[in-house]
Amino acid sequence: MRIGSAKLPELVAVIGVGVLGASVGWNLSRHGVKVAFIDAGQPGEGVTNWSFSWANASNKTARKSYFDLNVAGMATYRELARTIGPGSWWHPSGHLRWADNPADEAKLLKTADLLASWDYQAEVYTGAEVRRLLEPALTVPGDVPVVFYPDEAWVHGRHLVRHLVGQAVASGAELRCGTPVCDIGAGADGSIQTLVLSDGSRLDVNAVVNAAGPSASHVAGLVARHLPMRQEPGVLTRLGCAQVPVHRAMHAPHIEIRPDGDASVVLHSREVDALIDTGEDPAELARRLHELARHVVPELGTSHIAETRVANRPIPVDGFPSVGAVPSVPGYYEAVSHSGITLGPVIGRLLASEILSGKRDEMLADFRPERFLL
User: Fold this and answer.
1) For 47-67, how does the pLDDT look when each residue is reduced to its tens digit (9 = 90+)?
2) Radius of gyration of the chain, Cα coordinates, nearest whole angstrom
3) Do residues 321 and 339 make contact, with C-beta atoms less than 8 angstroms apart?
4) Bridge partners for 174 per DSSP
5) Left, alpha or beta for 64 (phi > 0: left; psi -120 to 50: alpha)?
6) pLDDT per residue over 175-191, tens digit each?
7) Cβ 237 vs Cβ 289: under 8 Å
8) Distance between CA 183 and CA 289 in Å, rounded?
9) Alpha-carbon distance 86 to 248, whole Å?
10) Model pTM greater than 0.90?
């Protein structure tokens, strides 16, 4: 089978079945490629399940090309929801952000103005309007400006991954869980040919996608590839609630809060992340998060801490994604990014197209793996 003039690979192994790996594999499977999903754990249970899972471009203004890629990611989500149905994974309810001091408030409003100049929807309300119109459970002061980004969303990453992988498996993909990759073998010409798994099994493959998240640098090392990564752990806590008192993702001062389904709320804070390096007990970190959240949403005082996890974020050393082929290792591709939730579907589409056609999309020009070649 061919796409245009390109011959389809017979088998592509996708290493890591979080949102990035699932998206790449699903897109390949739709075009008739045989895919083998390989994961050391279970699909969607890794860092995908332990991130704030906020689909946005408002926090991606450091580089215009990165902003544009994230905007494309949000558009691809809307397209994906039309294709597979929104289900329990897609929650396009917008995002709120406000500050509690003049300097941060000025920075927030300046960013909103910049985004508006880039044709990105940003609406400014007062705290009183937000409580009346959007989130009655908040304690935000009535005169504080609150920026509302109506096009943003939160995503239930584990549900999305299971949906995409389930569709791919129904189309003939293979799923191997609990089997880390031990070795990647190449032929005389240096091209990828084999994968050896921890259970001793061996796969003959034509291509490998490294979507291994925090383990991506290790997987890259199996093909003698240097992929420098940051070490930035983050802590996430889920609260169990009899009734979820918030309706959308929000960045309040000192704490991030979002719904996580009918009976759960997710909490994260960069300030609390900074305490991880001090060796503080994760249970104490969770209590700090809960206390910060109660100041913003008093109703969360009756909720209970259900689960907490400290997870390493998959961040290439310069903070930007590493996506595409590595020319020195034919058949080896990377899909590694901190913003995996926002970028998963668009990277999945663009990288699958590159694998199928050999053509490099200009949208990924600033994020090619070659920038890390030594």
Assistant:
1) 999 999 999 999 999 999 999
2) 21
3) yes
4) 36
5) alpha
6) 999 999 999 999 999 99
7) yes
8) 40
9) 16
10) yes
